[in-house]
Design a protein that fits this description.
152 residues, alpha/beta, Glutaredoxin, five-stranded mixed beta sheet, two-stranded antiparallel sheet, 24% strand
């Protein structure tokens, strides 16, 4: 069953996931208070995914100054995320989506029909999507596009 790809102007779905520290993270934690950047990536500890996560880490202070929360999501489990976050000193939550529920809720497509897609969403404080940026290999582009969407 195909899922609807969310677009700019759509309301973000309610979501809940467990991060690398076993903490529950929910959309209701942010709606009404702060914008959220959610970046979906294929897999921990792979070259492009590591570069993307580290780019978000390196710009984390800018996101914090704007008041935005950054959340990474992949199909890896909590232990993999914990090791990934520790190894690269990632200061944000990495949600485990082992069953693909979050990916399906956002309508994140597969690349070439095989690989989990790389898509970043900027969600404003009211829960409305303000950016959908999809680029499988442009790891730095996700950070740049997210920051630009937040300061518009």
């Amino acid at each position: 069953m195909a899922t609807k790809r969310l677009q700019v102007g759509d309301r973000a779905p309610d979501y809940e996931g467990i991060d690398q520290n076993g903490k529950s993270v929910r959309s209701s934690d942010f709606v009404g208070s702060r914008p959220v950047v959610i970046f979906f990536y294929p897999k921990d500890n792979t070259p492009v995914c590591t570069k993307e996560a580290c780019a978000f880490r390196d710009s984390y202070a800018k996101f914090s100054q704007i008041g935005a929360e950054v959340i990474g999501v992949s199909g890896d489990g909590e232990a993999s995320h914990r090791g990934f976050a520790e190894r690269y000193r990632l200061p944000f939550s990495l949600l485990s989506d082992t069953d693909g529920t979050l990916r399906a809720a956002f309508g994140v497509p597969k690349t070439l029909g095989l690989f989990p897609g790389r898509v970043t969403y900027v969600i404003d404080r009211e829960g409305v999507i303000r950016l959908v940026f999809s680029a499988q290999l442009a790891s730095d582009g996700h950070v740049k596009a997210a920051l630009e969407a937040l300061i518009r």
